[in-house]
């Protein structure tokens, strides 16, 4: 057994109460897997009998929503485990697992887990109780996200006259759904001066120190600027339509950052669609006015 295996399983929440001598025995059953960026570990609907532990990199768990379009459900990082339903019953995988960047995993087969538990029967109840707690935690997170996205979708269906008013409603609406105390800012791209302009803010945090950490304005990516501040790009066709900044008063642990980042990335896609709709309506109105003016002029 290598030290890397033991070091990994010591960090897994699912196993953090298991005595080290028993973890040493479990580590003997772990198989190492390396994936390149974008490699598919398993497809939705495939059969599986393995639990996976992430050693390094990230695994994106996503579900097909239509055609080739997928919705991200979770992003797993070092120390996380996934695929645990395959240990409980013989069912098809409910989502796809894809490497996000070079990723290393350890794989634990159902039969090997059964062998380990048979050698340490006193651990069986503790192990499966921890498994239920981990699944319950994920369900609570999913429920919070679904509520946020449903409420936000309802908000975005309202006919808001200006993009400034829309962004004020968005940042006021999103933060209460996030765990902890949050402040936020919204910036939108102004094509006339080719700059990102401040639109509105909510909360007491001063974001001035974040300015030096922002990515170039043409890059369409979101990232954590530090352990508590998240930069959310609003994706556009050729360049970002703007960006949002969110800051949590409390320092977030890795798992909370990953889940919050994924949720806010989904929020960004919804907001970008709403911004494009407002811009389209505005352009249509201007074209109609121009057409009417030209028609009146030609009739003189």
Brief rundown of the structure:
By secondary structure, the protein is of the alpha+beta class. The chain has helices at 3-11, 20-27, 85-88, 110-119, 124-156, 163-174, 254-298; strands at 31-35, 40-42, 50-66, 69-76, 81-82, 96-109, 182-190, 195-202, 223-224, 229-234, 242-248. Helix 1 packs across helix 2 and helix 5 runs parallel beside helix 7 (254-298).
Which labels suit this protein?
single chain, 300 residues, alpha+beta, Jelly Rolls, Beta-Lactamase, 2 domains, 6-stranded antiparallel beta sheet, 7 helices, 11 strands, elongated
Q: Give the termini distance in whole angstroms.
A: 91 Å
Structural class: alpha+beta
Low-confidence stretches are none
CATH architecture of the largest domain: Sandwich
Tally of helical runs: 7
Residue share in helices?
Answer: 40-55%
Q: Mean pLDDT, rounded to whole units?
A: 82
- Supply the CATH class of the largest domain: Mainly Beta
What is the domain total for the residues? 2
Q: What does this entry look like structurally?
A:
The protein is of the alpha+beta class and 300 residues long. It has two domains: 139 residues, Jelly Rolls; 136 residues, 2-Layer Sandwich (Beta-Lactamase). It is built from seven helices and eleven strands. Strands 1, 2, 3, 4, 5 and 6 form a six-stranded antiparallel beta sheet that branches. Strands 8-7-11-10-9 form a five-stranded antiparallel beta sheet. The chain is elongated.
């Amino acid at each position: 057994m290598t030290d890397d295996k033991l070091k990994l399983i010591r960090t897994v929440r699912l196993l953090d109460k298991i005595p080290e001598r028993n973890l040493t025995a479990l580590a003997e059953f772990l198989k190492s897997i390396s994936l390149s960026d974008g490699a598919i570990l398993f497809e939705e609907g495939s059969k599986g009998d393995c639990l996976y532990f992430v050693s390094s990199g990230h695994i994106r768990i996503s579900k097909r929503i239509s055609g080739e379009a997928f919705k991200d459900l979770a992003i797993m990082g070092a120390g996380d485990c996934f695929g645990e339903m395959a240990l409980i019953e013989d069912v098809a995988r409910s989502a796809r697992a894809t490497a996000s960047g070079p990723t290393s995993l350890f794989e634990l087969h159902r039969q090997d887990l059964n062998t380990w538990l048979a050698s340490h029967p006193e651990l069986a109840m503790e192990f499966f109780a921890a498994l239920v707690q981990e699944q319950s935690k994920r369900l609570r997170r999913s429920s919070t996200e679904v509520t946020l996205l449903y409420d936000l979708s309802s908000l975005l269906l309202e006919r808001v006259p200006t993009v400034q008013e829309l962004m004020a409603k968005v940042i006021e609406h999103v933060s209460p759904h996030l765990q902890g105390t949050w402040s936020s800012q919204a910036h939108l791209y102004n094509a006339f001066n080719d700059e990102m302009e401040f639109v509105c803010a909510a909360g007491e945090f001063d974001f001035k120190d974040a300015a030096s950490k922002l990515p170039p304005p043409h890059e369409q990516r979101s990232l954590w600027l530090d352990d508590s501040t998240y930069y959310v790009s609003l994706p556009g066709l050729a360049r970002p339509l703007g960006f949002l900044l969110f800051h949590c008063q409390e320092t977030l642990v890795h798992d909370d950052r990953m889940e919050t980042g994924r949720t806010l990335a989904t929020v960004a896609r919804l907001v970008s669609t709403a911004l494009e709709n407002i811009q389209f309506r505005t352009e249509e109105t201007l074209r109609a006015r121009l057409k009417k003016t030209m028609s009146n002029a030609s009739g003189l």
